[in-house]
Design goal:
By secondary structure, the protein is an alpha+beta fold. It has three helices and 13 strands; from the N terminus they run βββαββαββββαββββ.
Length: 207
């Protein structure tokens, strides 16, 4: 945001030329269907090991799965609705999705999502103390040279059932441990590409 400030008879312009938009939206869909779908994946499909520290992370899901239809349409609606705030211009398409199930003390370490332009996460089940997502300032290493020591270089997003976050794929992020002993944190993550992006046949594009 660019602003003009007049102070003590002097006018200055203050520019913020490189904003990093993180979009938080609320989606009203049937989470019971998605929860059952994710638990079924965990039951029948071995876990991948990517950014997850414990817990379950599915391989890529079929985007044709009927259980994902409402979620995909809702994500596409959010992309169209907030496109003026996105760094990358439309049209944009969902490239892949996967389930995350985090039990007590399970987490996701710092990572990014290569070969995509935008990524996101949708929260299906978020019990108390289940852990929130945090985004790192891109210049975090440089900020350690200043007196803040980088302590103010995190943006924390609250995990909430029905909430979605959309963010640039190159923005590093992590998810705190689920400290709820009795219930899992369940979410679906996804990557977004432009229609002309080339994806190698055997190359995964998620973390």
């Amino acid at each position: 945001m660019d602003i003009e400030i007049c102070k003590k008879g002097k006018t200055v312009n203050i520019y913020d030329p490189f904003p990093i938009p993180i979009i938080e939206d609320e989606i009203n869909i049937d989470n019971k269907i998605l929860k059952e779908f994710c638990l079924e994946q965990e039951k029948n499909v071995p876990s991948s090991v990517r950014s997850n520290v414990g817990g379950y992370q599915s391989p890529e899901l079929s985007l044709d799965a009927p259980e994902l239809f409402e979620l995909i349409k809702a994500i596409e609606w959010s992309l169209r609705t907030w496109e003026e705030y996105l760094i990358y211009p439309p049209p944009l398409v969902i490239a892949n999705m996967w389930c995350n199930i985090n039990y007590y003390k399970d987490s996701n370490f710092v990572h990014l999502h290569p070969h995509s332009v935008y990524s996101g996460v949708y929260y299906i089940q978020t019990p108390k103390d289940c852990g929130n997502i945090s985004f790192e300032h891109p210049a975090l290493d440089l900020l350690y040279h200043y007196k803040t020591g980088g302590h103010d270089a995190l943006f924390k997003g609250v995990s909430k059932e029905g909430r979605i976050f959309l963010f640039p794929s190159w923005l590093k992020h992590f998810v705190a441990p689920n400290m709820n002993i009795d219930q899992q944190r369940i979410s679906i993550s996804f990557n977004i590409q432009g229609p002309n992006d080339i994806r190698l046949k055997d190359e995964t594009i998620y973390n």
